[in-house]
Amino acid sequence: MVNAKPYHINQRYAYMGFMFIDPEYRGQGVIQNIIETLKNWAKTKHVVEARLLVYHDNLGAIRAYEKSGFKKHTLEIKLEFE
């Protein structure tokens, strides 16, 4: 669980770090099972929100997360200096 910034609606949320599913196991519901387990655990802690980060061009992961109910929320942008 993470404490949210003061401007967020929910003060605590579950956070999912970067995950990797071996290509051999993709499309078999692994992400959905992980997310369902996280949701069940979070509910026992009275947490009602989960967040994660995903690279914008990782379309397969984005589809998997959206299939589990995640919605795009913010956009992080960066500038690299040479």
Automatic annotation (TrEMBL):
It comes from the Bacteria. InterPro entries: Acyl_CoA_acyltransferase, GNAT_dom. GO terms for molecular function: acyltransferase activity, transferring groups other than amino-acyl groups. Residues 1-82 form the N-acetyltransferase domain. Gene3D superfamilies: 3.40.630.30. Pfam families: Acetyltransf_1 (PF00583). This is GNAT family N-acetyltransferase. It comes from Lacinutrix neustonica.
